[in-house]
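Quick question about two entries, pasted in order.
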Amino acid sequence: MFGLTAENKYLPKVADFYQNKSIFVTGTTGFVGSVLLEILLRCCPGIKTIYILLRSKKNVEPTARKEEIFSKKIFEKLKEENEEVLNKVHVMTGDINLPNLGLSEDDRRLLIEEVSIVMHCAANVQFNRPLRFMLENIVLGLNSVIELCRKIKKFEALVFTSTAYSNCNRIGVTLKEEIYRLPFRAEKFIEALKSNDNEKLEELVAQCKPPWPNAYTFSKCLAENLIMDTATDLPVAIVRPSIIINICKSPLPGYEEGNTGLERLCIGVGKGFVKVVHADPNCKLNLVPVDIVGNTHILAACCVGLKRCSTPLIINVTATDNFHIKLSEYVETLVEVALKRPVPQSFSKLTTCILEPSRYMYSMIAIYHHYIPAIVLDGMLKLFGGKPKLYSLYRFFDNIMASYDFFVFNDFEFERNNLERLDKLIHPEDRKDLSLDFKDETLRDIAKKTPEVCPFYDLKIDKRSPSERQKIIQWRYMMVTSIQGIFVLSCGLIIYFLFALIF
């Protein structure tokens, strides 16, 4: 519970709490991490240093990856107003998948001496990755972070980014802001991981009931249990966001990076590429803007650091009524926006997107709308020396969406009392930039702003002019329609001749 007194109702101003403090942040290349970094730099200009953990990726060095982060559109305003503040961000070369986060002795010593607050946002969010990989990435990574926190001399707070779906295996109940315990202590899983005892690991996981839909959500649940088993004496906050979407307020309303599962669907529908999805149109999505998630991290660190609440503080960062909407409403909004402002590099003419709950019917409709045209167009590409890719793209999309089946066929309810309590603690002077109240916002309001600010809506990414692109879209639409017409006619003729032979 939060500690409120009549004399000291609000938290101090966030800028004052972070004044002259150094922070260690992981996961800054991701959507949440990038937004969190921007908010820290913008709202806490007196912060001393922000150390970010980066690894080399695809032959790009960590320092170059830092520049890639700052090249994102959300940092443009900050660079215009106070570019020097970016110099407070220093790269620590490392990897959460490695022991001791892959840090050098010098970097590790520096963190131990300088840092006060740790925000651990890094995690692989692909739902189709194997169990061992996810456990090593999420659980062992967090274990290394906790070990580091215990050695930090000026340690004040650890904020861990979990997910509201860490206990999604409990269908039909309201998921509370508490840690749901597993039948075994987290150390048992870690021992099996470190000893490479896969049989023991699988046996432990199999006894955790009811089963989780994927390794990601189970790993987050185990990570929360790890905190409960090993870090209850530390000031810790666990932030659990639901489905993260665009920024709703600051710094750039409507901004999204297009690398989440839901945004891939958004782009696919907007480009006229995805015509049908296997999903329940009445399934309710629980959406939360990413800036609300970033604000929660910053305020939660302040709250646990000042001992204004119990620890671990668990916060479900989940939807208000306006963002707890049917999947059909979400898709309708996407189509409405894309019809008014076509998405660059569009594949075909945008009409609508069918949400089909029956697997059998979905397969039939997908064959008609996706696979038959893809096979024919791939054949034409190959004939003219091109590289066939449409069929494989549709297969890739189906595999991605299959990993989300559990979430587009089940509804979830979340307790969000701690989020509302934390919002009431915000200092009046911080409310403009760090409010957690978004009940007056709507998805449609955010979606209307999306084309102006999102990278995947930037016309520069399309190598063709709007008129050339329109000609291609029209040509593909005619080709696809013709292929579908021929397919239907062929099926009709086959059925006719079969009946003729029989009767």
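Here is the second entry:
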Amino acid sequence: MVVREKFEYDLKLLRDKLIEIGQLSEKALTASIHALENQNVEAALEIIENDERIDDLDEEINDLAILLIAKQQPVAIDLRRIIVAIKISNDIERMADFAVNIAKSTIRIGDDPLFKPIETIKKMHAIAVEMLSLSIKAYNEEDVVLAKKVADMDDQVDEFYGQTIRELLGIMPERKELLQQITQLMFVCRYIERTADHATNISESILYLVKGRRYDLNA
């Protein structure tokens, strides 16, 4: 295999690993809200256990990217592809950590019945997971229009976040026996809001990859 062919092969491998870590993180996030809603501690423990594979993939992506830079000394678009892969992998790994954190909140709540259905949290979570899914699609297709759409969806998550936190804070003084559960649910809301922020970061990385300049889509 000639040098350029090997480089193209490794670039594709890098992309494939990034898509895989994205899919695994999406699966973990989806499982985390199901575990919370059903108060399924066993499912929550499985999410925590499976996070090791995601961490390993993140390391593999970083190692491969560094090797490509060191051995091939790429320039222009190829260098951006490698740098962006490192950054996106880091964002996705953080999202998976939020899935683990939601699982831990599920364990802390335990089998105490949820004081009300978590419908608003589920809506916020669904948007954040869709943002991750679409951001990976936008990366794979280098689609800046789709990347911008993902960033625009962050406003919906922020709106649900503010609404839910205000509601939970309003209940807390009246239902002191629910302090532990409400605190954990507020943490969950924060983890989801941060997940959406990282999806927006991925969108910014895609725009940098394609256009060669940085954009602040959180502004």
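Reply: Residues 204 and 216 are 7 Å apart (CA to CA). The radius of gyration is 19 Å. Hope that helps.
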